[in-house]
Amino acid sequence: MASKLLVLSGAEVGAIIEKHLPINSVLENQASVFKALHARLEEIDNPLRTAVRAPNHTGLFMPSRLGPHTTCKVVCVPNAESKQRGLPASTMLLDGESGRTRAFINAAKLTALRTAAGSMLTTRALEALRRDGGKGLSHIVLFGAGQQAVFHALLLVQITRQQSDAEMHLNFVVRKREEDLQQDIRNNLDWLRHQVKDLHVAITVLQTSGESQVEAAVRQAKVLVSAVPSTAPLFPSSWVASGTHVILIGSYKPHMQEVETSLIHRAKGALIVDDADACAHEAGDLIKANVDAKDCISLGALLSHSTFSDTSKPPSRDAALKALQELGGSSRDHDISLFKSVGVGLQDVAITSLVVETAETMAGIGTRLDF
After folding, report:
1. What is the overall mean pLDDT for the chain?
2. pLDDT at position 1
3. Name one GO cellular component term (predicted).
4. Are 226 and 340 in contact (CB under 8 A)?
5. Span of 38-42, 49-53, 132-136 with lowest mean pLDDT
6. Lower CB count within 10 Å: N or C terminus of the chain?
7. Within 13 Å, how many C-alpha atoms sit on residue 42's CB side?
8. Which of 158, 189, 184 minimizes the C-alpha distance to 173?
């Protein structure tokens, strides 16, 4: 009898993430991707994405192969003028031997999860470089309140709670046109509140119209996440204190820009990218700042260095600085550290395979169809 096609809904994927995927397993899953990319293994194929423009969104088609698994993910990013919120996404997983379609899943949450996992790998690896010396993330600012921002917040809470029970403050900054907190944004934040209840986490929503409040929050931030597909800087570089770790995931085209070029230059020596080739073509923040490839350290190179290879145990400050120098960075005390991600298709292969393999061992989850 032929194998059946597994279909997983968004709710089913969410249930697997919440109950069956420990954060350390997710981080290890994603770390293996970046290490393989850095090693340029023959078993990977990761072409640049193809963008198809529509009136209300840009469709991004991302095929990739990692070992025996091949996926193609399609994600639609709404235009700035669009009223649509969120990032609709679907992923098809092919069987390595037969080439048949093994699974088709709603990937909206997986896109957010794998992106956040990549960011957490840099946050944990470089935590000793923060101005608090890695002693907890008391204040976090996130521009945007979609699933990308919410999953970053959740994983930041989870990795912090492995070390500290101190109170955390999450400040979400939403744009003026979002001030009415549309239903999907309310749902995202309600979901997050449920996930972090009893974990001493305070969640605040700030509006861009309240500039003084936003400035105060940014100046206090130990980690700053920008998840907005913006074409202009969202805040002045001068607001960001030395020792802050900055994560940029919102811009994905050459004309897009989330931060001032001066902030990019402040990260020289500790500027990490998910994929140097992809960022050279797509990361508007780096392109506008005239950043040379030699000024960037790929996440795969970082994680392949013996100092950072254990994703569960961050190195000391001196060890981290020495390793960054060996990777082409600088041994000096950095002003800020920064991670720029445009997304790597191999991430989708790894996280999709992990979720599908988990689902296939579970009874009563997913729909199985003749195909």
Report:
1. 90
2. 43
3. cytoplasm
4. no
5. 132-136
6. N
7. 0
8. 189
Show the tokens assigned to 179. 């001030």
CB atoms within 10 A of CB 6: 21
CA distances from 348 to 30, 45, 118 (A): 9, 13, 12
Is 112-343 a CATH 3.40.50.720 domain? yes
The answer on pLDDT for 88 being more than 90 is: no
| Residue at 200: amino acid letter | H
Confidence of residue 131 (pLDDT cuts 50, 70, 90): low
Q: What is the pTM of this model?
A: 0.91
Q: Where are the domains of the chain?
A: 5-110+346-369, 112-343
Segment 286-302 mean pLDDT? 93
71: left (phi over 0), alpha (psi -120 to 50) or beta: beta
203, containing H or E segment: strand 201-207
Spatial contact of 225 and 142, defined as CB atoms under 8 Å apart: yes
CB atoms closer than 10 angstroms to residue 24: 13
SS3 170: strand
Cα(144)–Cα(238) distance, integer angstroms = 20
